[in-house]
Amino acid sequence: MRIGIIGAGHIGATLARQFSRIGHDVVISNSRDPETLRGLVEELDGKVRAVTPAEAVAFGEVVVVSIPYGRYRELPTEGLQGKVVIDTCNYYPERDGRDPDLDSDATTSSEKIRDHLGGADLVKAFNSIYWENLRDRSRPKGDPERLAIPISGSDEEAKAVVAGLIRDIGFDPVDAGYLGPGGRKHQPGAKVYAAELTADELSALLRTG
Ligand SMILES: NC(=O)c1ccc[n+]([C@@H]2O[C@H](COP(=O)([O-])OP(=O)(O)OC[C@H]3O[C@@H](n4cnc5c(N)ncnc54)[C@H](OP(=O)(O)O)[C@@H]3O)[C@@H](O)[C@H]2O)c1
Fold first, then answer.
1. Which residues line ligand 1 (CB under 6 A)?
2. How far is CA 61 from CA 2, 10, 158, in A?
3. Dihedral sign, CA of 170, 172, 173, 176?
């Protein structure tokens, strides 16, 4: 699968490593010249190419957005219709600046990003796993240590694609529901946020709210 990643920090670079490891065709971008990602490209044995965010959008059948939430308005708005977009972003007011819509819980960070992206099929995923666990804790299916990753989204087909990617890199996806209500269950402050849980444990906790 062709995967375009926007954001080359802890999570973006770790996803690039994971997806390229299992044979996906991956490009990655940051907010600067792609040349600034030369070190990362070398670290990943040239399996990943550095591009601009617009090129990552054009390339990807799946596009990953993994930047500080406060910068989402800088994301490309063209070319995302019909693509599966994975949103790993979280809202941290001290880093991102205050957003009254989120402080009042009128909406969620993922819905605001989806709207900015022109209504792409957005799935919230990988926002609730610490990057070192994402890097180091892949396990085969059935392993009792295999960690679960909550996902939410309002497009079932897009969610199925993301669930498949999560399984293939060695984690269990657990569906938390539609983008707004589901996403609230695994955003910062939620019980399951950043918790290290198996699929059964995560499912049970999601049912309690
Ligand atoms: N760290 C974690 O364990 C973790 C876990 C789950 C979710 N998250 C969330 O996932 C998101 C990314 O986290 P992170 O820890 O990976 O962040 P990070 O290490 O600070 O990296 C952020 C990346 O975003 C890029 N970026 C910023 N604005 C951009 C733009 N307009 N266009 C393209 N790239 C842009 C930065 O590139 P430049 O350096 O060129 O600006 C940098 O590569 C955040 O919302 C975070 O809350 C983090």
1. 6-12, 29-32, 53, 66-69, 71, 74, 88-90, 127, 129-131
2. 5, 22, 11
3. negative
Q: How far, in Å, from the CA of 190 to the mean position of ligand 1?
A: 21
> Which domain covers residue 37, as residue numbers?
2-207
Using pLDDT thresholds of 50, 70 and 90, give the confidence band for residue 209: low
Please state, rounded to an integer, the average pLDDT across all residues of the chain.
97
Contacts of 207 (CB under 8 A, 6+ apart): none
CATH number at residue 142: 3.40.50.720
Please tell me the total count of domains within the chain: 1
Distance 68 CA to ligand 1 centre (A): 5
What's the gap in Å between 7 CA and the centre of ligand 1? 5
Count of beta carbons in the 10 Å neighbourhood of residue 123 = 30
143-153 confidence digits (pLDDT tens): 999 999 999 99
